[in-house]
């Protein structure tokens, strides 16, 4: 079967892969995106916070993603039923838009830039020689050669494995996450509420659109077996103990389909090797309660598009620019992962949670000097 050549091969059509493909396509690069699934993925991310919104605005995509999205600017936190904090997001707040919808918008924009997508593409072999990816071979025999190869293929990245880049994965095993989509009720439409309990539970309720809401329940693994495998008889009794201002949503929870989500953090030892680069969850993963993974990934894609364009096919220059401009992103990612770890360790403890909460990272996605911290209303 014939070999296809392109400037940039991107493995993975998630947010990172699609956004980078769009930016490079706009700059006239020939881009091929290889996706193992039949379509754009449907992961659990729903919140795009201000840093990510600003990246999209810089590339003329703000109106597109806002059009059917929902803006919110407050999250109210509770512990054992009592409100303990409100986090306010300035300048219009954050956007709620289900992951699949968001990525599909960017994917649709790629078509106008001539980006090629290969769906249902099963990678058989990634040939690495002289510390660079020489060729990708699919199980149907198709071959792809590219000046630059991007591993935007998620936490289990095949590109990362082929490059032999080391990883440290830390599952957040003490808190199993379940998510369901339910009809929207008045309390959820009014406010995003995130409840913690000293028994080690959490519940987060927020609207998805005018009709539907998402409910995240986090619980100790030993409770999960009892509650979710027996047709959820005890779920509402447990929630009643600490979910105080959202009881109108209880009726909707019982018949809901509860999906189990396994959450881990991920750190890797390098972000590139030769002509191959890791992006998004292939490079780092933090606790979802930071709500910042997509924002950082969008900014990383922006940096990568600049670097790849500036290198213009010069392998040595690409390597130097990646060291200078992309590898340093590991510091910001490490900080975010550490922050997510610190938050996750305090969910049971009101005072420890309040002490660990960082408005700079939570709202703005960057570490600020103490004098620059936004003022939070503490109730
Ligand atoms: C439960 C949960 C909730 C989250 N909530 C938020 C949130 O509210 N806000 C936020 O900013 N971030 C959130 N995040 C983080 C966010 O999901 C990630 O930052 C984002 O999805 C990263 O995008 P990506 O393109 O790197 O990876 P992914 O979306 O994981 O995409 C990877 C793609 O690669 C494909 N792929 C994998 N292997 C191969 C292969 N071998 N060949 C071809 N294709 C392959 C996959 O099918 C997939 O399409 C959350 C994460 C989790 C787990």
UniProtKB/TrEMBL annotation:
Stretches assigned to the FAD-binding domain: 6-334
Superkingdom of source: Bacteria
Alphabetical list of Pfam families matching this protein: FAD_binding_3
InterPro entries linked: FAD-bd, FAD/NAD-bd_sf, PheA/TfdB_FAD_monoxygenase
Molecular-function GO terms, alphabetical: 3-(3-hydroxyphenyl)propionate hydroxylase activity; FAD binding
GO biological process per UniProt: 3-(3-hydroxy)phenylpropionate catabolic process
Gene3D superfamilies, A to Z: D-Amino Acid Oxidase, subunit A, domain 2, FAD/NAD(P)-binding domain
Entry keyword Oxidoreductase: yes
Entry keyword set: Oxidoreductase
Descriptive protein name: 2-polyprenyl-6-methoxyphenol hydroxylase-like FAD-dependent oxidoreductase
Protein's organism: Nonomuraea polychroma
């Amino acid at each position: 079967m014939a070999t296809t050549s392109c400037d940039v091969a991107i493995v993975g059509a998630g947010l990172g892969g699609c956004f980078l493909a769009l930016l490079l396509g706009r700059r006239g690069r020939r881009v091929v995106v290889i996706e193992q699934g039949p379509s754009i993925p449907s992961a659990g991310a729903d919140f795009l916070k201000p840093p990510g919104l600003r990246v999209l605005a810089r590339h003329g995509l703000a109106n597109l993603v806002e059009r059917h999205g929902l803006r919110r600017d407050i999250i109210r936190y509770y512990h054992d039923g009592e409100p303990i904090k409100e986090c306010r997001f300035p300048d219009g707040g954050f956007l709620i838009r289900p992951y699949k919808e968001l990525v599909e918008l960017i994917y649709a924009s790629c078509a106008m830039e001539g980006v090629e997508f290969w769906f249902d593409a099963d990678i058989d072999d990634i040939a690495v020689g002289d510390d660079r990816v020489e060729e990708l071979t699919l199980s149907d025999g198709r071959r792809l050669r590219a000046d630059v190869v991007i591993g935007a293929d998620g936490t289990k990245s095949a590109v990362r494995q082929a490059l032999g880049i080391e990883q440290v994965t830390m599952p957040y095993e003490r808190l199993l996450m379940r998510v369901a989509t339910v009809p929207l009720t008045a309390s959820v439409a009014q406010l995003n509420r995130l409840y913690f309990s000293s028994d080690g539970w959490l519940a987060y309720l927020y609207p998805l659109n005018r009709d539907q809401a998402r409910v995240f329940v986090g619980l100790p693994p030993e409770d999960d077996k009892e509650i979710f495998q027996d047709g959820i008889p005890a779920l509402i009794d447990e929630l009643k103990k600490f979910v105080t201002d959202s009881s109108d949503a209880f009726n909707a929870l019982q018949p809901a389909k509860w999906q189990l989500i396994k959450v881990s953090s991920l750190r890797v030892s390098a972000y590139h090797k030769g002509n191959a680069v890791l992006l998004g969850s292939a490079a780092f993963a933090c606790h979802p309660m930071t709500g910042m993974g997509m924002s950082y990934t969008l900014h990383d894609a922006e940096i990568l598009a600049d670097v790849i364009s500036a290198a213009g096919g010069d392998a040595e220059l690409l390597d130097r620019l990646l060291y200078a401009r992309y590898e340093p992103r590991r510091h910001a990612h490490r900080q975010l992962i550490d922050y997510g770890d610190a938050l996750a360790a305090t969910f049971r403890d009101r005072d420890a949670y309040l002490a660990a909460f960082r408005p700079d990272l939570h709202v703005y996605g960057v570490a600020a000097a103490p004098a620059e911290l936004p003022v939070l209303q503490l109730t």
